[in-house]
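hey so u asked for the seq, here:
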Amino acid sequence: MPTPSNTMQHAIPMEAQQRFWNDWNTAAREHHLETVSTDQADVVAGWLRGLGRNDLDILDAGCGTGWLCERLRPFGTVTGTDLSHEVLDRARARLPDVRFVAGDFMALDFGNAAFDVVTSLEVLSHVADQPAFVAKLARHLRPGGYLMLATQNRPVLQRYNRIPPPKPGQLRHWVDKKELRDLLAREFEVIDIFSATPKANKGLMRIINSRTFNKPIRALVGRRLDRLKEAAGLGWTLMALARKRP
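ran it, structure tokens below
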């Protein structure tokens, strides 16, 4: 599936993007979290537990409804930011101990080296200038701080899934594993990149990932088949853990 050119992406006004994400979060994310999202959050929570701290300063860039912020609170002080200002108004009422800042992330100033951890789930593909976005994530991190990022796995979405075309106001530029590593390597030491959550709705992979096919196998081997698919790069998500260079 072709993706919009960078020129087309830059041409989408910020107001149109804001309308899209307010509507999308209100209709979808405020009511239901899919397995893709909960798996991403589980990976991030595992990474954070591995740090062994509960005093971290954490920024969630592109927090949407604040659903991940809720999972981040046990690890420290959380700031969430998103373009969806209407959605964040409701998030503030639900999570008063989280600082929410609405606006265009690229135009907001959260200070240099202000955070120990920055999280960003499925945001990279929706920004017009990905290198600038990654550079800004790095700028807000302290030396040695961690970026915990998830983004759509382009080969899996293109080859094995039917995805509707972008709607008005929606930017879309998926990346593959190499492109993600190259993007992050400009600012970070990349610790790990792997795929998560096998998902397909077309072709042979739709059958292989179907509940009918997988249920008896999982009864015998648990999640090992899914782990093999993920190791083969067949997960919907690319999960990346990276450390800001000193």
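The beta strands are 56-61, 76-82, 99-102, 115-121, 141-152, 188-198, 235-244. The two ends are 39 Å apart (CA to CA).
lmk if thats what u needed
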